[in-house]
Design a protein that fits this description.
Blueprint lengths: L1 H27 L2 H22 L5 H18 L24 H12 L3 H12 L4 H8 L3 H30 L1
Length: 172
């Protein structure tokens, strides 16, 4: 029975780990810290695996574990320093992905968001969750998700518009 559990868990982790790492990296902005967040979430998942694997949504449990691990990491005193990660980590990118310069600009704009807005953007737009699913994963109201999303998208539009204007001036 334990061997079967381990195989199921390993198969799940193998399939989902890149997405979990990317989401954690988007949340915290540092690949080393993202690795810590993913490891903490996967440790929680392993302990709860017998119960979680029978649930309707293993992914919802794992998303919540990643968000909670990110929040826990941020509370540690030695983590209150500036993040070292500047560039997106090498993760397989879909064929229709934006150019590297555009991704760097997007990351800079995303990194400038307050943590709460960044979490909402990652859940809503990276994982594609609904307002209600995001609210449940973050432990906040649906109204807060909507207002955080609206504020975050407005900030991203402004930052990316400024970046676009800057690039046009440099090319002229």
């Amino acid at each position: 029975m334990g061997h079967e559990r381990d195989e199921e868990f390993a198969a799940y982790v193998e399939q989902r780990r890149p997405q979990l790492f990317r989401a954690a990296w988007l949340l915290c902005g540092d690949p080393h810290r993202a690795e810590d967040v993913v490891q903490a979430a996967l440790t929680r998942l392993y302990v709860a695996w017998p119960r979680v694997r029978r649930a309707d949504s293993v992914d919802a449990y794992v998303r919540r574990a990643v968000v909670n691990a990110h929040l826990d990491e941020g509370r540690r005193p030695w983590r209150r320093e500036t993040s070292a990660g500047e560039r997106l980590p090498d993760v397989p990118v879909p064929a229709a992905a934006p150019a590297l310069e555009d991704r760097d600009a997007l990351w800079s704009a995303l990194r400038a968001l307050p943590p709460g807005q960044r979490r909402v953007v990652v859940l809503r737009h990276w994982w594609g969750l609904s307002v209600e699913e995001s609210a449940a994963d973050l432990g906040i109201s649906a109204g807060t998700v909507k207002s955080q999303t609206s504020a975050a998208l407005a900030a991203l539009r402004t930052a990316l518009s400024d970046r676009s204007d800057e690039l046009e001036e440099n090319c002229s």
